[in-house]
Structures are given as structure tokens and as C-alpha cells.
Amino acid sequence: MINEVRNTVLSILNKNNNGSLTPEEFNLFANQAQLEVFEGYFFSLANWKKKQNQRMSGENYADIVKEMEEVLDTFTVSSALTHVANGKFTLPNDWYTLLKAEVVPNVTPATYTEIERVSQAKISKLLSSNLTAPNTSYPAYVVGPEPISSPVGPTANFLQVYPQSITSDVLLTYVRYPKTPAWTYNTIGADGDPVFNPSSASYQDFELPLSDAIDITIKICEYAGISIREQAVVNFEKGEEMLNLKTES
Fold it and tell me: 3-state DSSP call for residue 185?
């Protein structure tokens, strides 16, 4: 998919001699475009769920909510977290949004104790009372700077679990970011153009479905148009984007 998208982008840019796009520039714009489309799924899903509740959406092949959820399911993963200190666990680098945290000891039969997410303001209040303080049967967690001192320092890259006696067996289910796309190529040939090489160890295709190729292409062209200061390209692609939005609504 990434090679087809790149060929389309270059064709649009070259149509009116709007300039060239290096592989490095394309990869940079491709990553930003994919992230935009990916994040758009969450906003679109919320809108379509609202329509579904109002009985304004279709069913079966026209079930847009189901289609979007299927795409996001491909980015949903579970990962055992590594304990650092004082109930603090390292979050995966690729997490986008957290869905569920559980304590899952390695025992048979398996047991699952869900860890409740609470706000920074609420955890301080809970910890101030023995009656409301989290325990191993009803644990809790916060994300971000913890309200007490820590040897690793306050950071949003950690998940703080209470009680702090929990130091292992924490399983996190989350939605990850798409992998960074990379259009790879061999040494530039005699004609001066790079030759596509999908066998490279650095190669990475888009992870979004083929149905998103149009939106990704439009957004890459917008970035490219801004980069080469070609307002005609930007205006054309913004027009295409508005047309897509009208079609969705």
C-alpha cells in the first residue's frame, strides 16, 4: 500500500511541475498522515455511535461502528508490565490509550483482579483513609506524576499501582499507536530515482486498512504542498478532504 500511495502522491505533485519529494520527506509526511487518520477514528467512532443510538446508522455491511471497531481492535494489545519501584510500572512506549489493567497471578485456575483507574486528585483522598485506601482485592492506579516521592521521578510513562505491595503480575490492555511507516529503497539508479525495496529490514507498510489510502494520500499531499509552498496543491487536497467529510455526514 505504501508504494502505491507514494506513486499517487508523486503523480499529483509532478502533474503541474510542483517539485519533487525525497523518500525521507515522504516517510515523515506519511507518518504524520497516518497518525491523523488513526486519531480521527476515535472522533468518528464517537459520532457514529451517537448516530447508532439515534437509529441513524445502518446494519450489516452498512454498520460503520462495527467496521471502525474492527480496525481499532487490530491495534489493541495486552502486555505484562515491568515493575520499577514502589508499585510503579513502566508503560509501553507505543501506548495511545489505556483500556484495562489487571492483576493476573501465574496460578491455575487463572484469576483476574481489575485495577480501577482513578484521578490524581481522587487517589490522595482515598489514601488518606484506611476505609477507602486501595487494597489487593480492590486495587487502583493513576497515570502520570504520582502524589508521593519516587526514585524514578514523576513521569507520564509510568503506571502507579496502589497498594504499592503489588509488584508483579500486572497485565495492561491498551490501544497502541500504528508503527511508523517507512518507504525503503535501493541505491538510486542511473535515472536518479530511488528503487522501491520492500525487502529492507527497515521497511514498514501502513498499518491502517486499504480503505484509508485515499485519506492518507490527501494528507500527505497537503504536507507536501506546504513544504514546497505550493498553495494550489494544498487547496486541491483540502477540497478533496472537505468532499470526504460531506460524504461521511
Answer: strand
Identify whether the C-beta of residue 62 lies closer than 8 Å to the C-beta of residue 114.
Answer: no
- 17 by Cβ neighbours in 10 Å (0-12 / 13-18 / 19+) ranks as exposed
Kindly report the pTM of this predicted structure: 0.77
Contact 120, 52 (CB under 8 A): no
Question: Residue 108 to residues 79, 102, 210: CA-CA distances in angstroms?
Answer: 20, 16, 42
DSSP assignments along 1-59, one per residue: -HHHHHHHHHHHHHHTT-----HHHHHHHHHHHHHHHHHHHHHHHHHHHHHHHTT-S--
Amino acid at 226: I
Q: Which helix (H) or strand (E) holds 126?
A: helix 120-127
pLDDT tens sequence across 176-232: 999 999 999 987 666 678 889 999 999 999 999 999 999 999 999 888 876 555 555
> What's the count of helices (H) and strands (E) in the chain, helices before strands?
6, 10
- The closest alpha carbon to 206, from 176, 184, 182, belongs to 182
